[in-house]
Amino acid sequence: MAEELNFSRAAQRLHVSQPPLSRQIRDLEAELNVTLLEWTRQNVRLTSAGRITLLHARKLLRDSDLLRSEAQIAAGTEQEELHVGYAPSPTAELLARVLCRYQELAPRTRVTFHDLNQAGMVLSLHRRTLDVALTVRPRLAEMRGLTFDLVRYYRHGIICSADSEWSKHKSLSPRSLAGVSLVGYQKEDFPEYYQIISKAMRIPAAQLKVRQQCDGAVSLVAAVESGRAPAVVGEFIKGIAGNRVRFVPFTAGTLRVPVGILYRRNGLSERASIFVEACRRSGEAIAK
Fold this sequence. Notes:
This protein is an alpha/beta fold. Helix content is 40%, strand content 22%. The protein has 3 domains: 7-75, Winged helix-like DNA-binding domain superfamily/Winged helix DNA-binding domain (Arc Repressor Mutant, subunit A); 84-150 and 263-287, D-Maltodextrin-Binding Protein, domain 2, CATH 3.40.190.10; 156-255, D-Maltodextrin-Binding Protein, domain 2, CATH 3.40.190.10.
């Protein structure tokens, strides 16, 4: 963004849509407690703090590359490392299976996991700071230069407290939740959540009534368990929630949640290719 000074061109260069890019900039400004960019309808420019930050950021990147090279030279060997992005809730069931299979196929590779939202994973794949990512399938507009391989579909439904009236149902029509107050994820951090549940419920996202927004799966489950309201989720949440709440699936025919492995279409390393294969095998094992 600092080099292009144009949101459209910067987003295109990074292979992401504009909202995730804007959110990354806001997050950085909040962390540094400064304004980095000033923009009007006509142009965007760096503030004084933005120019200083850009200079230091470039130096940090150069120093990071130098440190890695010197450390590998000092060690006399280059240790193989795989960086994997993941979304904790959708991958709760898959992560251990995939890692176990991968360690069988590549026992000498060290795996580092990065807990990111979907926009962060897409951005990091294009920046090559991630090798692969386990996540819900992104929208087509966010898939430029990337490939998604399905590992497993999960049912949509709700979680509710054990003593809730909703818990008496064996299944629910998504339409029965129209106008019902819900618990959900923070909209600014997880915009893809609202796109997914809006599509599953066949309700415009603007009409969803989310009374409490949570910063992650743990707080979402806690809010539902306390009796605040139900939450629309994928069945994978059971891997985190256990028996603390009741999962009630939507009726047959409702769209399911596709969870799988996301990676760059070109330039995939051998260790990343092995991880993709481990994901495929794990999915086949679950399906049996």
